[in-house]
Design goal:
It contains three helices and six strands; from the N terminus they run βββαβααββ. The chain is an alpha+beta fold and 132 residues long. The protein has one domain: 60s Ribosomal Protein L30, Chain: A (2-Layer Sandwich), CATH 3.30.1330. The strands form two sheets. Strands 3-6-4-5 form a four-stranded mixed β-sheet, with helices on one face. The protein has a two-stranded antiparallel ribbon with strand order 1-2. The radius of gyration is 14 Å and the shape is globular. The two termini are 15 Å apart. The mean pLDDT is 91.
């Protein structure tokens, strides 16, 4: 992973693909509130994948503004309004994720929710990152 975040893999467990079961961090933390897929001008890109990419870029922007970086992100919690859209996008999701996050896979959880505060938002992601 990185020198800031180390993946935790219990003995005998299979290596997870695209996430970590747990992470150990060094240094102070930044807790990143739920980010959605709107651009700085308040508009939303069209479609689930475009919103995921913008949401991840927003998470990274907050992490960097706090003095962290992509490799310092230790945990992501995803909230999606349409689990079918998420599942249908799985093949395309990997390259979208990697454009923003590279091959850094923190501990993650994904939860379907009925709706988000912003009616156009299809995904919201909150994070914890190390600063250092």
């Amino acid at each position: 992973m990185s020198e800031l975040v180390r993946a935790v893999l219990p003995e005998g467990w299979p290596q997870p693909r695209g996430y970590a079961n747990g992470t150990v961090t060094e240094g102070p933390l930044v807790h990143i509130g739920g980010q959605i897929g709107w651009r700085p001008d308040g508009t939303f890109p069209e479609g689930f994948l475009a919103q995921v990419e913008q949401t991840l870029m927003n998470v990274v922007a907050v992490a960097e503004a706090a003095g962290s970086r992509v490799e310092g992100i230790a945990r992501l919690t995803w909230y999606v309004t349409d689990m079918a859209a998420y599942r249908e996008a799985l093949k395309e999701l990997g390259p979208v994720y990697q454009r923003v996050m590279g091959r850094h896979y923190p501990a993650m959880a994904l939860v379907r929710v009925v709706e988000l505060v912003e009616p156009e938002a299809m995904v919201e992601i909150e994070a914890v990152a190390t600063i250092g």
